[in-house]
From TrEMBL:
Zinc recorded as keyword: no
Pfam families with a match to the protein in the record: Abhydrolase_1 (PF00561)
InterPro entries: AB_hydrolase_1 (IPR000073), AB_hydrolase_fold (IPR029058), AB_hydrolase_sf (IPR050266), Peptidase_S33 (IPR002410)
Domain AB hydrolase-1: 23-262
Family as reported in the entry's similarity comment: Belongs to the peptidase S33 family.
UniProt keyword Ribonucleoprotein present: no
Gene Ontology terms describing biological process: proteolysis
Name of the protein this chain belongs to: Alpha/beta hydrolase fold protein
GO cellular component: membrane
Annotated keywords: Hydrolase
Length: 284
């Protein structure tokens, strides 16, 4: 299995007469079935304080497609740890956005001593009724109905077109309408088979709530108050359930899905503070 990755920024930088190590952030894209280009160019901002490694997950982007039976949260999570082992990344900061955060969280549960820190951006989905209520608040009854049909597994080009035209625009609350959105979507090497596999199988398989106490590394949670998928109340419940590690939760007003894209200045400020500060002990 070959996994594609790209790198921004050095791990070692000159510091007087010595070379100083910087943190390495491994970023995981969402979709699932999208690729790492979702993070470009905005994540170059993080190279001011860290090395950034972008990874296309198994089945996505420029990585090997593999067998559909290997498209699981556990396999993707184990791939990330194996990837870090091969590259000798001893203490990665693992950052996942949307479903990439599901992979990152699974990695933290399966390999609790392997990560230095965990960053979860727009990750935990709320109950269906909670998500549908946000869609209706943002886009009216039609948006609620299209989202309901899509999440209930309706197939075909018609529902996909309606989802993309009615619901996807509601992911963003940027007043400028996210002018880079069209180009960013065109750059993605989508594997729609992975996305459909998620919609019909994997989404229902993700239920980590009774295991969240096992996460040990310091965790930063970012959420948008107007996210119609990874709802703000779900982010607050997630923070409360991570009882075995220090947690920072930031819910940003008038922000939708994908905090780094929606509010980059604030998000990267929070990321820098979290990554660069010495970790606290659990319970402090």
């Amino acid at each position: 299995m070959k996994l594609y990755f790209d790198v921004d920024g050095p791990h070692l930088v000159p510091d007087g007469p010595a070379m100083r190590e910087r943190p390495t952030i491994v970023v995981l894209h969402g979709g699932p079935g999208a690729d790492h280009t979702l993070f470009k160019p905005i994540f170059t901002a993080a190279t001011a304080f860290a090395q950034v490694i972008y990874l296309d997950q198994r089945g996505s982007g420029r990585s090997d497609r593999g067998d559909a039976r290997s498209w699981t949260w556990e396999r993707w999570a184990d791939d990330v740890i194996a990837f870090c082992d091969v590259l000798e990344i001893a203490d990665p900061v693992l950052l996942g956005t949307s479903s990439g955060g599901w992979v990152a969280l699974t990695a933290a549960l399966r390999h609790p001593d392997r990560l230095s820190k965990l960053v979860l951006d727009s990750v935990m989905p709320g109950p269906t009724a909670e998500r549908l209520a946000v869609f209706e608040r943002l886009g009216g009854p039609r948006a609620r109905e299209v989202a309901r049909r899509y999440w209930e597994g309706e197939t075909g080009d018609e529902i996909r077109r309606e989802w993309e035209s009615v619901c996807l625009p509601l992911y963003s609350r940027r007043p400028d309408g996210d002018p880079e959105a069209a180009d960013r979507l065109r750059r993605i090497r989508w594997n729609h088979d992975v996305l459909e596999h998620f919609r019909h199988h994997l989404a229902a398989d993700f239920d980590p709530w009774d295991r969240l106490h096992a996460v040990r590394c310091p965790t930063l949670i970012l959420a948008g108050e107007d996210d119609p998928v990874a709802t703000a109340p779900a982010a607050r419940r997630l923070a409360g359930a991570l009882t075995g590690c220090p947690v920072r939760l930031h819910v940003l007003a008038e922000v939708g899905h994908g905090v780094f894209r929606e509010a980059p200045d604030r998000a990267f400020e929070l990321l820098r503070d979290f990554v660069m500060e010495e970790a606290e002990s659990p319970g402090q």
